Amino acid sequence: MSKPDINAQIYDLYDEYCHGRIDRRQFFERAGAVAVTGVAMANALMPNYADAQEVLFTDERIKANWVDYDSPGGNSGQMRGYLVQPVGEGPFPAVLVVHENRGLNPYIQDVARRAAVAGFLALAPDGLAPLGGYPGNDDEGRTMQRSLDHAKLRQDMVNSARYVRTHELSSGKLGATGFCWGGETTNFLATEMGDELDAGAPFYGRAADTEKVGNIEAALLVHYAEDDPRVNALREDFEAALKQHGVNYEMHVYPGTRHGFHNYSTPRYNPEAAKLAWDRTIAFFHEQLD
Fold it and tell me: Residue 38 and residue 23: Cα distance in Å, rounded?
C-alpha cells in the first residue's frame, strides 16, 4: 500500500504508537475503527527493515564491529555499540548515531554504515545494552527503553560520545546525529558536552532545554518535518534561545513530510526530503569536522 492510500488519521495513530502513547493492539483496533481498510493501512506502516538497507554490512568500503565499553553513571556501567569505520588507516572524524525510542534497530545500524561510507568513524550505541540489547522487534524494544532510568540512559549516550571521540581511529573531532528520541538526545548532548561536541544534526527531535542553550558550543543543523506538531511546538523558543546565545545553527523544515520522514522502512519515508536532509548532514559534518 502506497502513501497516498493511507488515511491521515492512521498516520496520526501510528505516531501515537511509535511514541508509546498507545500499544500495538490499540493501534490496530483504532485503525480498524477509522476505515474499512484501516487494519491494512496500519500494517503498511509497520517497518520493513530487510528491504530498507542501503549499505550492507559486507560492503567493502567499511569495516563493522560490535564493541563494549565502560559507561560510568549509566544504567549498568557498561555499554555496547555498533562501530563502523571506513576502510583505511585513519584517523577519521567521529560521528555518534543515536537511535529512536526502541533501541538499536537495523535502520539505525544502516545509518551508521552510511556515515562510514561518507568517511566518518561511526558509533551507534544500543541504549538497551544493559537489558541485553535490541530484542529484534520494535514493540519489545520500545517497552524496554521506557523501563530504563532516563537520566542514566542519557549518560550512556554521553559516555558513548566520549568513547568514539577518543577512539584510536578518531581524529578527535566529534559530530552527533539522531532521530526522534535520538534527535532530542543530540540536542541534549550539545548542551551537556560543551566543546567536546563539534557538530550536531538532530532529526525531528524535541528541542534542548532553553535554559541550557548557552552551554552549546557545537554548530547545529536542525531538521524538522512539516507535519509534526508536538516537536515543532518547541521550535520557536529553541530558535530564539540559539539566537540569543550566538550559537552557529541552521534550521530546515521539509515540506510535505511527517515525523520520521528519514526512516526508509515505512511509508512515512519521503525519499526526496530524506536524501536532501542526509546530503546536508554529510556536507555539514565534513565542513565542521574535517
Answer: 16
Residues 60, 55: Cα–Cα separation, whole Å? 10
- Consecutive H or E run containing 225: strand 219-227
Hey, what's the cell of 268? 512515512
pLDDT (tens digit per residue) in 98-126: 999 999 999 999 999 999 999 999 999 99
CA distance 74 to 78: 7
Output the pLDDT for position 53: 78
Smallest CA-to-CA distance from 123 within 174, 77, 55, 72 is with 174
Look at residue 177 and give its three-state secondary structure: strand
Mean pLDDT of the region 168-188: 98
Query: Measured between alpha carbons, how far is residue 12 from residues 2, 7, 131 in Å?
Result: 16, 9, 30
Mean pLDDT score of the chain: 90
Element (H, E) at 66: strand 62-71
Q: Beta strands 92-98 and 219-227: pairing type? A: unpaired
Amino acid, res. 65 = N
Cα(69)–Cα(106) distance, rounded to whole angstroms? 21
Residue whose grid cell is 501510528: 14
Per this entry, what is the length of the chain? 290
The structure's pTM equals: 0.89
Which triple of cell numbers denotes residue 162? Answer: 566520549
Amino acid, single-letter form, for residue 6 = I
Cα–Cα distances (Å) from 74 to 71, 142, 154, 162, in that order, read 6, 18, 8, 13
Q: What is the DSSP letter of 127?
A: T
